[in-house]
């Protein structure tokens, strides 16, 4: 990897031996620049941007706090790792409240340095990716709540706008959860009838004996329980749009009367013979193949042709995967918690999942993840279990990680390694930190610090006698 293509790290320390140590630890993976004091670091920061800055806190002149503040003023996305003696840890914690990513306490293990810098770089990249997604989301076309920049979605929105301009029946086809009601509302909002009512009914949710009354109304005494006359949904939607969701679920006798209502633009309330003129534009939707339903005798052919004047197919998520990150970020923003975004593993799981429930399933998955998330970003484990299993991240399982030296485990599993690796070590050695440190190829105290950092308690793995 060329010097220009490697991530850049600025190391600031007033001790030459520490600068050499950091250069030796980080030099293979990063383009390392060193500064022997805070003033030199400030001059470098004024001329260029770094991916990660590693700085000692205690320095004469401009100290680590001055470096941190200058970094956050000039390049807020640059991550800062502080180096401190054990006695100065409270100062490091204070600096983290000011925006530092993490701290290293002396003496430190070289592997710990490499891991902390790698994770700081990963966080910077995640932030940059999230900011890029936010910019794309802000610039993405929003057709009355229908989001997406993919070709199938752009085509569907163009068709909806085209159909809305003409006052004829629109038939929306698509799997469950693809946004057919949003599409119907978009047709209404784009049509000359936008000032009129939008009335929606799920035909599949209506009891068979009440469907006709709901759609067309009834007269007082028309049937048991009809204690007063009632206006039907066709009349309620007069001057606006009537959305018949899951129209394929209507009983055949009602299909006959619906076809007549569409043809004559009038309805008869149950229990009367007097026709009532209605002026409602119908948008119908179904997840069923209506041609197959016609062939099976479950849907009337004449009604099918009456509805199939202008048809728009809403694409499933699997056909518009490039929209998934934008949609996930959109639902995250709607969820009401100020989370930063998604880890790469979580985003990979979202974009590779099959999504049989489409956009509705995605929204529910993000809402669930927001509810259980403990950190600033949604992790893979925050997502519904079936999504995590489909992610295929490629990392070794924890039981395999425990057989590797620490640096090889980091290389194998990258950002997801730490807690899984440490947990596997503790499981294998029943909480014995000394034996686990020998297997990991690191000092016992270094392992203790890592266990504390990632919240893995060795005592939880000790076997009772």
UniProtKB/TrEMBL annotation:
Tagged with keyword DNA-binding: yes
Domain Response regulatory: start-end pairs: 8-121
4-aspartylphosphate: residues carrying this PTM: 56
SMART domains according to UniProt: AAA, REC
InterPro entries xrefs: AAA+_ATPase (IPR003593), AAA_lid_NorR (IPR058031), CheY-like_superfamily (IPR011006), Homeodomain-like_sf (IPR009057), HTH_Fis (IPR002197), P-loop_NTPase (IPR027417), Sig_transdc_resp-reg_receiver (IPR001789), Sigma_54_int (IPR002078)
SUPFAM superfamilies: CheY-like, Homeodomain-like, P-loop containing nucleoside triphosphate hydrolases
Keyword annotations from UniProtKB, A to Z: ATP-binding, DNA-binding, Nucleotide-binding, Phosphoprotein, Transcription, Transcription regulation
Gene3D superfamilies, per the entry: 1.10.8.60, 3.40.50.2300, Homeodomain-like, P-loop containing nucleotide triphosphate hydrolases
Superkingdom in the source lineage: Bacteria
Pfam families from the UniProt entry: AAA_lid_14 (PF25601), HTH_8 (PF02954), Response_reg (PF00072), Sigma54_activat (PF00158)
UniProt signal peptide: none
Domain (Sigma-54 factor interaction): residue spans on this chain: 146-371
Keyword Electron transport annotated: no
Record protein name field: Sigma-54 dependent transcriptional regulator
Species of provenance: Hyalangium rubrum
Classification lineage: Bacteria, Pseudomonadati, Myxococcota, Myxococcia, Myxococcales
